[in-house]
Amino acid sequence: MIPDTGVCGAALPERCHTVLPGLPAGSNIAICVRGEQGVQLTRLNFGDTEAASRVVRAFNTSLGVDAVTERAMLLGCLLGWHAVRTSWEIGVSSIRLH
After folding, report:
1. pTM for this prediction
2. 40-63 burial by CB neighbour count: b if 16+ within 10 A, else e?
3. 55, 67, 74, 85: most buried by Cβ count inside 10 Å?
């Protein structure tokens, strides 16, 4: 079963953008889709990781997606959606992904 809720029962969004540090500019923006395994890489180019992170953060904020939810979505895509619910119990907000 794929959890559709995150912290305190708040609904996880259908999708969000994230920056994958370590990838070159122009290929470091990915889309996390709730319930899907892996991320969808994009051709968006917002510059280096720091600049891309600022743009992605503003974009996600405009969609109502905060940093903790973005991390939960990335965890779900990369580690499996069972990890999302478990992560809230250990404190996903303390995990730094970028």
Report:
1. 0.75
2. eeeebebeebeebbeebbeebeee
3. 74
Rounded Cα distance, 60 and 69, in Å: 10
Give a three-class secondary structure readout of 6-46. CHHHCECCCEEEEECCCCCCCCCEEEEECCCCCCEECCCCC
Domain assignments of the chain as residue spans, ordered by start? 7-92
**Helix, strand or coil for residue 60?**
helix
CA distance 51 to 47: 6
Q: Measured between alpha carbons, how far is 37 from 48 in angstroms, rounded to an integer?
A: 26
Among residues 29, 31, 5, 16, the alpha carbon closest in space to that of 63 is found at 16
**Cα 13 from chain centroid (whole Å):** 10
Mean pLDDT of residues grouped by 10 in the chain (98 residues)?
48 92 83 94 88 93 93 90 62 50
